[in-house]
Amino acid sequence: MPNIHEGILDAKGKKVAIIASRFNDFLTHRLVDGAIDCLVRHGAKDGDLDVFWVPGSFEIPQMAMQVGKTKRFDGILCLGTMIRGETPHFDVLSASVSRAIQEIASRTELPVSFGLITADTVEQAMNRTGAKQGNKGWDGALTLIEMMKLWES
Prior knowledge:
- By secondary structure, the chain is α/β, with parallel strands linked by helices.
- It contains 5 helices and 4 strands, in the order βαβαβαβαα.
């Protein structure tokens, strides 16, 4: 019989950094609210959650790296909303931010969860912030909780 390792959905005593983009903040605030709700419902205390608001999605990895270097947190949750526009800017930004967040997870040796929405329209983004398809902030927080517990094994 193999040894099975699974994360338990318990955030009690965990210190979490939430890095959130102010760009499209009418949507990102909903992601942050969903993430905090998830973390608290799974045992985290408000005082153990720090939210860092950065100007845009491009700045999320930069702040995540700085936060990771402090060794004050058990995990990092990255939240933001990128909506396709009329130029290729969206494609470049979404790809580079995604790649940078993955690299930060390796460099900081902390669980880092990806909770960024990449959508073609505002309506699609709204649906992913709680309107129809759940809240991706909640989902990202749940993933982070599981990974923080797995990190202990």
